[in-house]
Every structure is written in C-alpha cells, then in structure tokens.
C-alpha cells in the first residue's frame, strides 16, 4: 500500500508544510493535540479506521482486528478522546511492527510506550497511561469515517506524522494539497537560500510569493 505515488510524495513533506497547504484549500486536517510518543517518530500511509465506544455487557473486543490490516496502512483509532482507558499496548505494537504497518494514530491514549520507542514503531495519541481498555471500551465499527483531534478521517485518506503531530489529507483533495505543499516547500527553500546569500527576509518572501502561497483560496 505504501508504494502509491502520493504516499511517497507526502513522506517527503513535513506536517507544518502540509498544514499550510490544507489551510490554503480550506481543509481542517490538523489532528488537534495528537502527538508522537517519541519525537523521532515519522509516519506516512493510508488510513485503516476503527471506531470505539463504551463496552457492552458482555463486553466486545478491544483489538482482535490487527491481522486484517494491510501492510503500509496507518491504523486510526477513534476512542472519542478518552484518557481513562487505553486501546493500544505492547502486543498490538509488536504485531503491527512485524506486519509492516506504518503507524498508529489514537484519539485517546495508549500504554507500553517503552516498546514502541524500542522498536521505532510510530504511535501518536493524546497521551499514555497504563489502565487497560478491556471491559471498558470495545470496537464498534471498522473502516468507517472517524474523528481524530477534530479532523475527519475516512478509510483510505492519506496521513502524515512527524515530531509536530499528524495531518490527514482527504483522498478527494490530496492531489491539490500535495501540489500546494510542494510549492510551499520549494518557496521556503528558495527563501532560505536567498537569505543566506544576503537578501533581506521581506524581499526574499516577496520574490517567492510566500504569503500568496499560504493565503486561503476564496
């Protein structure tokens, strides 16, 4: 799955640049308060989504879906921001890493962060704590649209994560967003080069039309 061209394009861009491009196109794709459990984590791939809810009686499963997830996917777990019960831990980390899954994004919390750091498996969440989600939450639906940090994520959407957090690029807009992000990155590289050669920053920004690149389309 990670072989498609737009995944490779997104992997070359940082989330700040992609965030500016999303703003340019009026798309709210920044996942608010979703942060890496390690600043070295980097992640790019297409969304495989799960929606969680409070456990029923008898309770349903928290995490037996892992063997169905295609390699290269980003697992996107919507636990509605809950911070009192985890939906991800060391067994899932080990299996996801072994299966070549690109990373995990959680609107909620995880546990066992030492292993994801040791393996270099990217996990992004609102925080981490040790309390299990077993008998507290359960999977309600798989591969449906979910909400992650106030951003809508549909199955197959493109996700990029780095030290600054996670952005989601809706599949129907990804070509336009990536094209804009690449233009912003090229302009920023040109501004840096011009500034290093002695040009004033305001002049360099004007030359590369930096502010126009970031201004939202009407």
Which stretches are low in confidence, meaning pLDDT under 50 for 5 or more residues running?
none
Biggest sheet statistics:
8 strands, mixed
Computed CA radius of gyration, to the nearest angstrom = 19 Å
Can you tell me the overall shape? elongated
- Strand count: 12
Instruction: State the end-to-end distance.
Output: 34 Å
Q: What order do the SSEs take from the amino end to the carboxyl end, as H and E?
A: HHEEEHEEHEEEEEEEHHH
β-sheet strand percentage: 15-25%
Question: Average pLDDT, to the nearest integer?
Answer: 92
Q: What is the helix content?
A: 25-40%
What does this structure look like?
Strands 1, 2, 3, 4, 6, 8, 11 and 12 form an eight-stranded mixed beta sheet that branches. A two-stranded parallel ribbon has the order 5-7. Strands 9-10 form a two-stranded antiparallel ribbon. It has helices spanning 5-11, 15-24, 90-99, 113-119, 174-196, 201-207, 210-214, and strands at residues 35-36, 43-54, 73-78, 103-107, 109-110, 123-125, 127-128, 137-142, 146-148, 151-153, 158-162, 165-169. The mean pLDDT is 92. Helix 3 (90-99) packs parallel to helix 4 (113-119) and helix 5 packs antiparallel against helix 6 (201-207). It contains seven helices and twelve strands. The protein is elongated, with a radius of gyration of 19 Å. The protein is α/β, with parallel strands linked by helices.
